[in-house]
Amino acid sequence: MSNGIDHALGQAVERIRAAAADGTVLRIRGGGSKDFYGEAPRGELLDTRALTGIASYEPSELVVTVRAGTPLAELEAALAEKGQCLAFEPPHFAADATVGGMVAAGLAGLAGPSRASVGNVRDYVLGAMLVNGRGEVLSFGGQVMKNVAGYDVSRVLAGSLGTLGLIAEVSLKVLPVPPAEATLEFACDQADALRLLNEWGGRPLPLNASCWFEYAGAGALYLRLRGAVAAVEAACTHLGGERKDKERAAADWQSLREQSLPWFDTAAGPDALWRLSVPQTAPVLGLEAFGAPLVEWHGGQRWYKAPPTPAAAARIREAARAAGGHATLFRLPAYGEAHEAAVPRFDRLEPAVERIHRALMREFDPHAVFDRGRLHAFD
Known about the structure:
Layout: H1 3-22, E1 26-29, E2 44-47, E3 54-58, E4 63-67, H2 72-81, E5 84-85, H3 99-104, H4 115-118, E6 125-131, E7 137-141, H5 153-156, E8 166-173, E9 175-176, E10 180-187, H6 190-201, E11 207-215, E12 218-227, H7 229-239, E13 242-243, H8 246-257, E14 272-277, E15 294-296, E16 301-306, H9 310-322, E17 326-331, H10 351-364
């Protein structure tokens, strides 16, 4: 590490040790692009943006080690120069999104359209450097897949929302950009879209992403294929559908990734954005009262717009559980802060899982330095 990074890490360590000594709660924040996610942040700000820069990058080894405060756009630009990418397409939600925030918020809808085919953030985390609640600098994992064995702490950090410690540095697996891509459109209702996706999922097709939603009362399924040129072209011939313009389709998939499609706009009304994670084989969920959803991840992720009220929460979460999944109050409408206490952002955990969560927090942060309330309203 450079002297500047050493100094920045040292300052963070001293801040955490002081907070542990005097009982101060710290909230870890990079660019703040995901402040909307999870329970309302609380505590004094611990900014990660001084921990910046790519520590090492070995394109031939498909691995990059990057500091937590590094802008996500900077990392993606460096990878693109070598024809590589983060295959799970992490959304930015703002220009100043950071790598640490990508990992800390790396579950529950915070992966892009290709997640169902290529995996989530945690599947690409090889190692991490963490400052725990005692102010100790710990390293986990490594820079190759064979080092990621046993109790994989580095991947536990994905989705932890800063409750276990300050992610100072992370090593990630990267992949080459696929040589070919095509997007097909099929006119169909939701039930037919789910049936088709399940049928195609059992075939050797280069499926990468899918999206179904209604516009002006008509449903359309969009299917993205990625892989070898011959495989993509053969799949297009076999599946049929309407092949979309490549540049326009790329822009639309990017809008889906960043939730900037008009479908996601809830700013002007009373509805919140709800995320339902269910098995891909789950049927239509019977939530027609809230309108047609937007369906991603080959049926595994379904977005609904509904009020952030206890009645709506009970109905949505019951439907998700009945299908074998769970529901998250993902994003509140502009006025929705008043509902935060009444409607938890996350669904309840099973008792055994909650015990594991609490045990991990006690082990990594025995003095409760970090903002535990951000995740599952823990105190």
